[in-house]
Amino acid sequence: MAKHDMGYEEKIAWAGVIVSIVHFTIYLGVLLTRATTTPMPHTPYVDAMLWSIGAAIVVMIVVSIIVAVTTGKDGRETDVRDKQITARAEFTSRGLLIAAALAALIFAMLELDAFWIANVIYLGFFFSAMLEAITKIALYRGGMPAW
């Protein structure tokens, strides 16, 4: 089996999967812990959500810098294949984000608590980011199929 050298974009996709899973798991753990004493719609969530999103952004910036430094200049250059993979992954994941936005719109029309609206949007971002990163990894590993 041939050795597969990962480029910058693929390494960032892997890091994105790991960071997303960790930050979502921590947020969910905090939320569920708080929900043991308070009904779910009344559970304080804003601080935990903002901290988890902010922490994930900071961690990804740091990881991106570390990966860029350790990958070297040749590995950071993007080519047509990288651009095609990014475009395909973004296209693939866009549907989940749209579905979450529609769900949030319906929740707002039904006048559900802000808790549910915020969390369905948060889930949409999480699942969309996961699908995008997994699609990138799959395309880097399996090749870019023809349209």
What does this structure look like?
By secondary structure, this protein is mainly α. The chain contains five helices and no strands. The chain is globular and about 50 Å long. The chain starts with 7 loop residues before the first helix and ends in a 5-residue tail after the last helix.
Quick overview:
This protein has about 150 residues and is mostly helical. The chain is about 80% helix and about 0% strand.
DSSP E strands, number: 0
DSSP strand (E) fraction? Answer: under 5%
The first-to-last residue Cα distance is 27 Å
Order of helices and strands: HHHHH
Helical region count?
A: 5
Low-pLDDT segments: none
Taking the sheet with the most strands, its summary is:
none
Rg, rounded, reads: 18 Å
Tell me, rounded to a whole number, the average pLDDT: 90
Characterize the overall form.
globular
Helix content: over 70%
Please identify the structural class as seen in this structure.
mainly alpha
What topology does this entry show?
Elements: H1 8-34, H2 46-71, H3 73-76, H4 80-109, H5 114-142
Annotation keywords:
mainly alpha; 147 residues; 79% helix
